[in-house]
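Form 7-S
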Amino acid sequence: MQIGSLRQQLIQRFSHSDTPALDADCLLCAVLSCTRTFLRTWPDQELEPSQVEQVNALAERRERGEPVAYILGVREFWSLPLEVAPSTLIPRPDTETLVEWALTFLPESGSAAKILDLGTGTGAIALALKSESPASSVWAIEKSPEALALARRNAARLGYKVHFLQGHWFREFNETGFDLIVSNPPYIDEDDPHLVQGDVRFEPRSALVAEDDGLSDIKEIINDAPDFLKTDGWLLLEHGWQQAESVRALLEARGFSQVTTRQDLGGQDRVTGGCWKLAAE
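Output:
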């Protein structure tokens, strides 16, 4: 069988996916150890029967709905190849909105900031910020032991030093004086119909769902964050596209100033943040 023919078959098989062509390309590239450009340049190249068998075995998993990231065990985020597993959320491009905004608060190259990532998962946000600001001191907290071990592996493989700790938000955490605190916490309501659709079905529910209309973890973080921020330090939170108004109100009620919301790649409200000033207390 030729590459082009198998690719078209896969695209048809993945009609349930939002990205059938990308899914097909990812599986083919993984088995053939090639780039997507190669697939398009050499569609007539004949495949070995063993290669076709390997691709079809992966395709069966994708047909059952398993995310490509879990099938291949890797997902790129901020140009960093990250190991992923069912114990963690799959890093998504929309979360890069948080990273882009966070970088605007970091000092000039060579200067150091003190950064905390709450609920780090794969370590995606913490490692992206460390890659852009090597002099900064980055801390990352994760509740799940399995996810924390994975984040540590990602940091070791990429060669970035991050202070990883197991914990639940700020509980039993004593380090203070952060210039920037960032988080992509659970923010989906437990009755949200999207929880039984697509890739989300396979991701850890504890990293997705929060009580109180999806706001309980966000409320806890906002309430406690001032005790860990420097004066003029910032708190940035990813949230659902319909939660921006609620998150802004929570930040303002707690005493944060300059409260602002940023939109993701699809133009949806995605990240809201505020600046902490002692005078606001």
